[in-house]
Design brief:
With 418 residues, the chain is an alpha/beta fold. It contains 12 helices and 21 strands. It catalyses: meso-2,6-diaminopimelate + H(+) = L-lysine + CO2.
């Protein structure tokens, strides 16, 4: 996003014109920002002979976004068989998709297996069951390194009390299962959590995985997950991906030399690739002054963007209709019948009823966590690609709200209240 001649632009397109064309609330994504981030991470690890970036599509699963990453040479990280199917529809080869679920039944794992994708198993029970049926299929093992990382407890997934992965202390058990069933382990995987601030913390987990890898002689790749932090406000803390690339790349190359062959280094970034590409545009319905606060109430809520309420996440807010207005303090809130606050005590250019506000960093885990709470429609999505705006998801209608409901004929007829 940049201001040009006083106008808020996304990928070179005037955001206010996008609202005029597609209405609000509206998610808008800039493909150039996604490409910049993809090229940035690949360049950071250019010392590694074999590198694979798998886009963690749970961040933003629109099929058009997936097609962009496929076109750029990216692989795909999925967590459900539905994401696998979407990735195949987007054009990814099965071998370029890794399926990393947790707490799913064997039936779903077998369904993904039938689609030909790489399988990543995160518990010993499924490892034993799957191995008994398909000992011939190479698999990946998800290890829990017991490292606390992440900006919020809900997105810290590598600690000792996490449901994710097989404890590093259970590797001897894993090796017994592998030996008994004759399994081929082609990869090891870890993911410590989102919003990693310090490269050193990440490197500690790397050392744990490398020590475990020495016990698996047939590896083809090591997947170090992701969790790279992006700045959510000016001057905000972010993962220094260039420093991490230099340090981890050197350590990985040294390990490959001792291991005896060049393994593939994998990452699965989601937020890093798409967060900054997204903008959420909302319209101000009311400006309400109370004895304690001034509220800017908008035509959206936690049904469209739950991260501030769920994770205490910060999204920078800009009044793009009145960028030169006098600065005032507002609580930006939604229209849901709950306390749904996008920002508290935000200094914004004076907000008037009808003004359009833009929430930044809306590309990752924003639309994907949206719902129909209060029977509200989910918003439309627009992709700005090579200077042109394209509708990539239409706004919902009442038909969508009722589409999966089954009306009972016995309740349609008029009746007398009891």
């Amino acid at each position: 996003m940049i201001f040009s001649e006083g106008r808020y632009q996304i990928g070179g397109v005037d955001a206010l014109q996008l609202v005029e064309q597609f209405q609000a609330p509206l998610y808008v994504y800039d493909s150039a920002t996604m490409l910049r981030q993809y090229q940035r991470i690949t360049k950071a690890f250019d010392s590694v002979k074999r590198l694979r970036i798998n886009y963690a599509c749970k961040a933003l699963t629109n099929v058009n976004v997936l097609r962009l990453f496929q076109r750029w040479g990216c692989g795909l990280d999925t967590v459900s068989v539905q994401e696998v199917e979407t990735g195949l529809l987007a054009g990814f080869a099965p071998h370029d998709i890794i399926y990393t679920p947790n707490c799913v039944g064997l039936d779903e794992v077998l369904e993904a297996t039938a689609l030909g994708v790489r399988i990543n198993i995160d518990n010993i029970s499924i490892l034993e069951q799957f191995g008994a049926i398909h000992p011939e299929i190479p698999i990946c093992i998800r290890i829990n390194p017991h490292i606390m990382a992440g900006g919020n407890s809900k997105i810290s997934v590598g600690h000792i009390d996490s449901k994710f992965g097989i404890s590093i202390h259970q590797v001897p058990h894993v090796l017994k299962v592998v030996s008994a069933l004759g399994l081929k382990i082609e990869g090891l995987h870890m993911h410590t959590g989102s919003d990693i601030y310090d490269a050193q913390v990440f490197l500690q987990a790397v050392e744990i995985l490398l020590r475990a890898a020495a016990d698996f002689p047939d590896l083809d790749y090591l997947d170090f997950g992701s969790g790279f932090k992006v700045p959510y406000q000016e001057g905000g803390i972010a993962t220094d991906i260039e420093e991490l690339g230099e340090r981890l790349g050197a350590r990985f190359n040294a390990f490959c030399e001792s291991y005896g062959r060049d393994l593939e280094l994998m990452f699965e970034p989601g937020k890093f690739l798409v967060s900054e590409a997204g903008h959420f545009l909302v319209r101000t319905n009311v400006v309400k002054t109370t004895t304690a606060s001034v509220f800017a109430g908008v035509d959206s809520g936690l049904n469209h963007l739950i991260r501030p309420m769920f994770y205490d996440a910060y999204h920078h807010i800009t009044n793009i209709s009145n960028p030169e207005g006098k600065l005032r303090i507002y609580n930006v809130v939604g229209y849901i019948c709950e306390t749904d606050t996008f920002g508290i005590n935000r200094q914004l250019s004076e907000v008037r009823e009808g003004d359009i506000l833009a929430l930044a960093n809306a590309g990752a885990y924003c639309f994907m966590m949206a719902s129909n709470y209060n029977s509200r429609y989910r918003p439309a999505e627009v992709l700005v690609h090579e200077g042109q705006a394209h509708l990539i998801r239409r706004r919902e209608t009442m038909r969508d709200i009722l589409g999966t409901q089954v009306e009972l004929d016995v309740l349609k007829s008029a009746s007398t209240p009891v």
